Each structure stands twice: as C-alpha cells, then as structure tokens.
Amino acid sequence: MAEKSESKSSVDKSHYSLQRRLLLNTSAVLVFFIAAMSFVLLDSYKAGIRQATFERLYAQFYSLLSYAEEIEAGDLFIPEEIPSDKRFNQYNSGLSALVYDETESLIWKSLSARYDQEQHKVPLPLSLPGEGTLAEITMEETEYFRFHYIAEWESPEGAVSLYHFVILENKRPFNQVISAYRNQLWFWLSIMALSLLVILFAVMRWTLRPIRRAVKELRQIEKGLLNTLSDRYPQELQTLTESINRFIQNERHQSKRYKETLGNLAHSLKTPLAVMHTALQNKSHDAEELSNICSEQISRMDQIVAYQLQRATSGPQVMMRSMEVEPAMQKITTSLSKVYHEKRLTIDVDIAEGLSVALDEGDFYEVFGNVLDNACKWTKTKVRIRGERVNGMVVISVEDDGPGIPEKVRLAILSRGKRLDETVEGQGIGMSVVKEIVAAYQGQIDIDKSKLGGALMKLSFK
Prior knowledge:
Blueprint: H1 2-14, H2 18-66, E1 69-72, E2 75-77, E3 95-101, E4 106-109, E5 133-139, E6 142-154, E7 160-170, H3 172-207, H4 209-222, H5 235-281, H6 287-314, E8 323-324, H7 325-339, E9 346-351, E10 356-357, H8 361-378, E11 382-390, E12 393-400, H9 430-440, E13 444-449, E14 455-461
Helix pairs in contact: 2-3, 5-6, 5-7, 7-8, 8-9
Catalytic activity: ATP + protein L-histidine = ADP + protein N-phospho-L-histidine
Main location: membrane
Keywords: Kinase, Membrane, Phosphoprotein, Transferase, Transmembrane, Transmembrane helix, Two-component regulatory system
C-alpha cells in the first residue's frame, strides 16, 4: 500500500503544469521580495521618525537650558513654568522634563511630570558630557522616548558642575504613526503584489502560448487532422518541433515501409508458391523430382522472407559487390517456365559471357523476378532477355510479344497500386518495388515498344 501511495504521489507531482510551477515560484519570490521591501521601508521610516524626534527633543533641551540659571555651584534654578512649550506645564501632557545633579538626585521637574520618583526612578545612561542620547524606556507600562544630555556648568569662581537633563516624550503618537504607516504600506504593497501577479500571469500565458499551440497541434496530429507541426515557433522551440516532425515522419515512413514490405512479401512469395502448386498438379513428376522442386522453392521462400525482413528494417541494401547475371537469370526463368508451363512459352536468354552487375543478390531476384513475371504474364508465346555492357553501363532488357504498354501509362505503372489492366490478376506492387530498388542503385528504367510487338523493359546499372 505504501508503494502504491508513493507511486500515486509521484504521478500527481509529475502532472503539475509548467505554468503553475512558474506562477508558484514567482509568487514565492514576489512574497519574499514584498516582505523584505516592507521591512526595509518600515525600518527606514522608523529611523527617520526617531531622528526627527531626537532633533526635536534636542531643540526642547536647548529651550529648557535657556531658562536655567545657576545660583551657586550645584544649585541650578529653572522656573516652574516653561513658556517655550505649554506641554511642560500641563500635567500628563506626554512631554516632561527632569534635571538631576551630578549625584543623580532630582533637583527639578516640569509640571507635566507625573512620575513618583521614589517608586519609579528614571534610569540614567552612561554618557559623556556634551553628548546627547536618545533611547526607548518603559515606565509604569508606558513607553517613552528618553533624551539625555549632561551639561557642564562653570561658575564665576571657576567651579564646574554637571547636570543631567532628561526629556521624556510619550511614545504612543510614534507608535500610532508607525501603525498607520505599516497598514498603508501593507495595503499598497498588497495591491502592487496582486497587480504584478496578474501581469505575470498574463505574460506567462503569452510566453507559453507556443507550447500550448504545440500541444494542440500534436493532438490534431493524433486525430489525423494534421501531418506535422507548423514551423511558426520561437527559436527556442524550433529544434524541438523540428525533431518532433522528423520523429513523426520517420515513424510514418517506417510504418509505410512495414506495410509495403508485407505487400512485397506476399507478392514475392507468389512465384515459388505457384511453382510448387504447378508441380503438385503435374502428374508427370515423380516423387523425387517433386521433392527437389518443393525443396528448392521452400529455400527460395526462406531467402525471400529474410530479404524482405532486411528491407523492412534498413531499406534496400546497396551493396557494391558484383554478381554474375547469367546464372541468376537462369534460375528465374526456370521457375517462371514452371509457373507458366501451360502457355508453352519460349524464353530466350542472351547474356554476354562473364557479365556481372553490382547488385545485392536479393535485390537482383526481386527486380528481375518482377520484370520477367510481368513479361511472362502478358506475352503470347515469346520472351527475350538480353544483357550487355554499353558505355560502361550494364544494360539488361526484357521483351515480349504481348499487347505492349501504351506510352501514356508507362510512368504510371511504376507507381504502387497502379495496374495496366484491372481485370488481370495482380496487386500493382511489383513494378513499384522495381523502381524503388533501381533508384537506390542509381539505375535507370526505360519502357518502350519491343521489336517483338510487345513491351520492352530496359534496366541500366553502373
């Protein structure tokens, strides 16, 4: 069960679309970027407000300092009310000031200060005289900005006294501003993120449209509505679509080759089967002669099957090894004489002595077996075969005294399935096979009128 579950899980994962993956990955990157950007913007905004607060409280310190006057060393006088900012004079206004001597004892506080110094003493930082600092502290569950400055005061007698000036400002307005800014920031960043996602989705749809078109065309090819993928694809997909087209063409070519090979095999087996059938019907043959004929034809059939299987997987084999023409031609004519013995044909073979041709043996039997079979089928009484070398070419001609081939259909009969007379038995395969094999050897076929009155088939090979 666990293996099935894992297998199903892996199958489900493999069905994620490329568009979905891109959208999910882009969304993750976008969320990270938006979060990082919001953190940076918010932190920068906080830093800006803190700096503005520091400068404002620094100004408040100088304002407070302007009202201070030292009566004697260690005895600093500051009016109870500070005219510069009325908040110093209003209880619990959120802005207050305190002054400590160098022993950190409170010597003055503004009217706005509401702190119980016995219970909640304001912590003073360690700092140098003349150095202003800003920090955040919490007292009585309330957050404050604390500005601290140590002022050096020199009396007329030359005595120097230190005074701690502390200004406290309630942090609530700061927090409210930050909260409002954060809400606005997240609102607009969310709008931007959604807008970017919509734009990215549209861009990805447009970018991946060629892939969707390729999938659609492949489905049409499966249904037989298209033959190949179109060539209107981006450069990045051109190599892929061209490879797919070549694959489709090769598959169709291979399928066509297998289909044709089956037809060729059936066509090629007709002659040896006919020879055996004729031999079995001929009462004059004794058992030994009949056995020899059948054995010879079965061996021939085995060669034909092997040859056709070879052609189905690799096409016509153009092997440039010469073979003698006359012995091979005699085998073909002997077999055909037995097939057409009722016509009492005269087959005249005139092959130049030692003539050889650069053909594979199987291809030779396939070519001239078909040509001579047609000649014997259409002739009346006589078939003539001649072989000679002319201008460096091996020329083998086959003539008969039959009705001949009209000039207007001479090229048509070389096409697969085309027959000169539909009333005569045959499949229209033989001559198309002849044309294919001769073309593979860069040979030539000429069809003309024979001096015997019938057809002349002239085949030339280098």
